[in-house]
Specification:
The chain is of the alpha+beta class. It has a single domain (7-82), classed as GIY-YIG endonuclease (3-Layer(aba) Sandwich), CATH 3.40.1440. It has 3 helices and 3 strands; from the N terminus they run ββαβαα. The termini are far apart.
């Protein structure tokens, strides 16, 4: 039996030391957030505690990477999500 792998684009946020967001993609969001929170994720996320603010499910890695690029540029949407942190 062939299992179709799902990919996710996610936005996480923190208030330490100030309110900020991070956009990424993964095939296991929970494991990825755990990596961010234990300083094994992206260098930008090290030293802060992050929480999931937004997640989308996509069918391929390339779709996830394209959507990640779009969300990284969508400052208005990320600012709206950031207000949930405060």
């Amino acid at each position: 039996m062939f299992r179709i792998m799902k990919f996710y684009v996610y936005i996480i946020g923190t208030t330490n030391p100030r309110a900020r967001t991070y956009v990424g993609w993964s095939n296991d969001v929970n494991k990825r957030i755990e990596a961010h929170n234990t300083s094994r994720g992206a260098k930008y996320t090290r030293g802060s505690k992050w929480k999931l603010l937004y997640k989308e499910t996509l069918n391929s890695k390339s779709e996830a990477m394209k959507r990640e690029a779009v969300l990284k540029k969508d400052r208005k949407f990320r600012t709206q999500l950031r207000t949930k942190l405060i």
